Amino acid sequence: MQVARAAEHAGFDRVLIPCSFSNGSYGLDAPYVDAYTSGMACLAATTRLEVLIAHRPGFVNPGVFAHMCATADEWSGGRLALNIVTAGVPGDMEQYGDVLDHDARYRRASEFVDIIRSLWTLRDTNHGGEFYRMADARLAAMPVQPNGPAIHLVGASPAAIAMAAAQADVYMMQAHTVEETGRRITEVRNLAAELGRSIRFAVWSRIITAETDEEARRRMRDFVAHADPQIAVAHAVHRRRSESIEDVRLRVNSSIDTWLAPNIWSGVAHLTHGAAWVGSYEAIAELMCRYTEVGVTDFQLTGHPYLEEAYHVGEHIIPVVKRKLAERSQGAATATEEKSRVRPDERWTT
Predict the structure, then answer these.
(1) pLDDT exceeds 50 at position 342
(2) What's the total number of domains in the chain?
(3) What is the residue range of 115's domain?
(4) Which among 50, 119, 148, 334 could disulfide-bond with 143, CB atoms 3.0 to 4.6 Å apart, if both were Cys?
(5) To the nearest whole number, what is the mean pLDDT of the chain?
(6) Domain presence at residue 251
(7) Backbone angles phi, psi at 48, to 5 degrees
(8) Which residues lie in Basic and acidic residues bias regions (predicted)?
(9) Can you give the CATH number for the domain in which 124 is found?
(10) Is 270 inside a domain boundary?
């Protein structure tokens, strides 16, 4: 709750509550607390902030979950969003008896989203699918948001991309080069257009910034120095290391010293997951503006420690990016009468 309040004060639009039964970043004996319960506490502790709760289909009936979310969205004034997650580190879901394979999890997740959206928008829902059954189901409470909480999806597999094109409101990607991000946006946007849909695109990244590039690199080295190599070894030995397509790609033929681009450090994937933006405030702000030029509208940022970095990014990054985007929009408006596609009101998640 303290981080959520800090994020709201610092100018973020939303906070993400991740879900996991075992920890993929820290020790295996340090599991996460429940995401939905934590998300409700964050909604209660804030007044403006949207709370993006990660949820894994398979453990809660979709009708029950739709009712839970409709109630939360109603009393929070429409501030709930959902990140539908199909899996996690190997063994995480299996420890509680969920042993579906990769593609089956996506089929189940797709049914799950169809059902909750039907319940949020229709009087009665009937469904007979591979995983779920609904018979004249209806809700007592309905969401404030017309189509219910926005659905965020992530993943680079064909199944993930197909589901995102068909059902996501926001497709989230781990940080990669601007060029690769633009390629993926084009791919998913075209697939969505074929289905008569349009969606937003988000990039997630760890962020390590300072006044200068040199100081940011020093903070990065400090991050590495404080990492416990035994944790990474334990994850590998117990096969509890992320095997997502994106993380595997980052680790192949690379080391902790590998960079995808001058300010994109992919070597961090050998310690945890994903990549990191490392650089001065101006350099990272400029990099983020370049992402908007290829279609990114939402930024999801992670910094350590969470509380301090919420204030740090709110003070030194968000205002700079907004200023740069406003300047780009002003320049585009001066140069042409066509409406600029670059907006100064990008969305921010911590």
Answers:
(1) no
(2) 1
(3) 2-205+282-349
(4) 148
(5) 90
(6) no
(7) -115, -30
(8) 336-350
(9) 3.20.20.30
(10) no
